[in-house]
């Protein structure tokens, strides 16, 4: 068998390349579709007059939003008329805030001392618990009022105990030799 030279031509097997003029003839034209409207039709302001006549005749269809109120507006300000109250229509009694009768300081002091909630909170404080929220507010308010009442009644001198808040002074007062060595001098 003799050797055949390869060629670059596709031969009869490949698709034939058509010139542009022939390709345009073979192409099918696109179906024309209706364009979607991007807004109102032109001249819509002029067609409002036609719609108004149709609405008055049949009273149907949506109301045009551009049509405003038909209520007449006064161009001159009218004087404001205030209704006058007849003298016999005036109220005869005056309203006043109800005043609660106050307790005497001694009665208030007794009431605070007998307060069960305050006693429970005082026990919690003595047990080194920390009060929070409403309990702390209630405790602080009642103890402050108790101190005021004691000062007002002059009972603070009897209730006071002599204690120094200075821990160094308390440390110096303590005789450590007696506690360590015993009662011997």
TrEMBL record:
Could you list this entry's UniProt keywords, alphabetically sorted.
GTPase activation, Ribosome biogenesis
TM spans (from-to): none
Q: Which domain of life is it from?
A: Bacteria
Name the family.
Belongs to the YihI family.
Whether Membrane counts among this entry's keywords is no
* A Pfam family the protein falls into: YihI
> Briefly, what is this protein's role?
A GTPase-activating protein (GAP) that modifies Der/EngA GTPase function. May play a role in ribosome biogenesis.
What is the protein's quaternary organization? Interacts with Der.
The annotated regions of Basic and acidic residues compositional bias extend over 22-35, 51-67
Biological process terms in GO annotation = ribosome biogenesis
Instruction: Report the protein name in the record.
Output: Der GTPase-activating protein YihI
> What are the start and end residues of every segment in region (Disordered)?
1-89
Q: Name one GO molecular function term.
A: GTPase activator activity
Is this entry keyworded DNA repair?
no
């Amino acid at each position: 068998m003799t050797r055949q030279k390869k060629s670059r031509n596709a031969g009869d097997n490949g698709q034939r390349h058509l010139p542009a003029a022939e390709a345009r003839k073979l192409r099918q034209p696109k179906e024309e579709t209706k364009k979607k409207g991007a807004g109102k039709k032109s001249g819509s302001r002029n067609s409002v007059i036609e719609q108004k006549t149709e609405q008055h005749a049949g009273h149907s269809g949506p109301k045009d939003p551009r049509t405003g109120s038909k209520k007449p507006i006064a161009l001159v300000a009218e004087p404001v008329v205030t209704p006058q109250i007849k003298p016999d229509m005036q109220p005869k009694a005056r309203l006043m805030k109800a005043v609660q009768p106050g307790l005497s300081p001694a009665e208030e002091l007794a009431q605070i001392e007998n307060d069960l909630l305050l006693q429970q909170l005082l026990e919690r404080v003595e047990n080194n618990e920390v009060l929070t929220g409403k309990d702390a507010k209630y405790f602080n308010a009642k103890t402050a009022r108790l101190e005021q009442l004691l000062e007002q009644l002059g009972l603070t001198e009897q209730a006071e105990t002599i204690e120094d808040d200075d821990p160094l002074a308390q440390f110096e007062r303590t005789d450590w030799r007696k506690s360590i060595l015993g009662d011997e001098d």
